[in-house]
Amino acid sequence: MKKEMLRKAFGIAMASVMAISMVGCGGGGSSSSAAPASEPKSSAAPEASSAPEEPSSAASEASSAVESAVSAASEAGAEASDITIGVSWCAIESQMWAEYQNTIKAECESLGVTYTESVAENDVQKQNQQIEDFISQGVDAIIIAPADGEAVVSAIQECNEANIPVIMANRAAGEGCEVYATISSDNKAMVKREIEYIVSITPEGTKYRCLELVGSLTDVNAIARQEGFEETIAEYPDMFELVSTVPTEWKGDQALAGVQNTFSADDTVNFIFSPSDALLPSIISGLQQLDKYAKVGEDGHITLVTFDGAADAVDAIREGYVDVVSVQDATNQAKLCVQAAVDAAAGKEAQDYTDAGFEVSSQNIESEYADFTGY
Predict the structure, then answer these.
(1) Cβ contacts of residue 251 below 8 Å, gap of 6+?
(2) Per-residue pLDDT tens for 224-255?
(3) Which end of the chain is more exposed for a tag (fewer CB within 10 A), N or C?
(4) What are phi and psi of 98, to 5 degrees?
(5) Are the CB atoms for 253 and 282 separated by under 8 Å?
(6) Strands, E, within the chain: which ranges?
């Protein structure tokens, strides 16, 4: 009963906010009003915000409507213990996603929030059906880690119609739906920094012949990491040459085949970019089979650049085989997803968050990250 009252209060408040926004944007004036605090955000990937504008009267009225929603939700008994969050996982096939899952479970438990989950095993149709099941169950908010941000748009639209707020975990949704918050990483900038780290430590005259592994071609994160890599090496044409680009669909067997086939065709490759630590065991296996797994500084070392911050990568850096990993903070992202879901379910403001990440390398792991073990 409390959940139904909460959803009604939430829906009424959102209708009021939308009506006020329409009044504020109407007429012949040239200025537009600021978006109300709890209005659903566009599903496009979050951008850096500019300096805040002076609030218009419409925005102030919208803010009052949101405050009324929070008050109504409180009267309906909208405490954390009354909230159920459904979490739709694309898959739990890497250390990063396992950390995400464990943290969300623990955070829900600490807040007294009821947690329910589904795992789609990267099947987009299955994931959409699981999201629809959450709607039927009457959950108060849904966190989605999508297999494909475009493919879940129709399911998110159904969430919008049911007034169930959606939080995107680590990957943005496609256009055409409304989400309340997107918690993600600055993938492109993070890859750029780790390539520039390699540039900074590389002796003049060195030539890298590169194998680039790519995740899923429909994954916004994979695309951003690919763009970050290719755009950055293009700035240093005398140092980097892209020999081969191999899509992997995030699958280890395809990464292994990519390593084997690339070196079979061109034995002079001396640099591998991996878009995820989940592929690292397969890459290492391939190099070991080819007798090319040498430590940093040793003859025959293949420069290895990877992404995520999993324990496998951090261990390999400590052991001297991997050069650098760009780390996304899966633990903090997961906590922020839960907080955003709780806030949105209670009619409060939910904000996007972009994780800037940090780099752990063979040069700074002992001096700056001695206690960092990855996840």
Answers:
(1) none
(2) 999 999 999 999 999 999 999 999 999 999 99
(3) N
(4) -65, -40
(5) yes
(6) 41-42, 84-89, 114-119, 141-145, 166-170, 178-179, 181-185, 208-214, 240-247, 271-273, 303-308, 324-327, 353-355, 358-361
Distance in angstroms (rounded) separating the CA atoms of residues 197 and 205? 16
What are the CA-CA distances from residue 210 to residues 202, 234, 307 (Å)? 15, 12, 16
Cβ contacts of 301 within 8 Å, gap of 6 or more: 270, 294, 295
Distances (CA, A) of 357 to 128, 183, 249, 277, 351: 30, 13, 23, 15, 18
Q: Sheet of 166-170: strands edge to edge?
A: 114-119, 84-89, 141-145, 166-170, 181-185, 353-355
Three-state SS for 353?
strand
Task: Report the C-alpha gap between 171 and 168 in whole angstroms.
Answer: 6
CATH of 187-328, one of 3.30.470.10, 3.10.180.10, 3.40.50.2300, 1.10.510.10: 3.40.50.2300
297-343 residue pLDDT tens: 999 999 999 999 999 999 999 999 999 999 999 999 999 999 999 99
Query: Whole-angstrom Cα distance, residue 140 to residue 111?
Result: 15
- How far is it, in rounded angstroms, from Cα 63 to Cα 60? 5
Q: How far apart are CA 190 and CA 178, in angstroms?
A: 27
pLDDT band of residue 81 (cuts 50, 70, 90) is confident
Alpha-carbon radius of gyration of the chain: 23
- With 0.85 as the threshold, say if the pTM is over it: no
Answer whether 332's CB lies under 8 Å from 309's CB.
Answer: no
- Closest CA relative to residue 285, chosen from 311, 247, 317, 253: 253
Length of the chain: 375
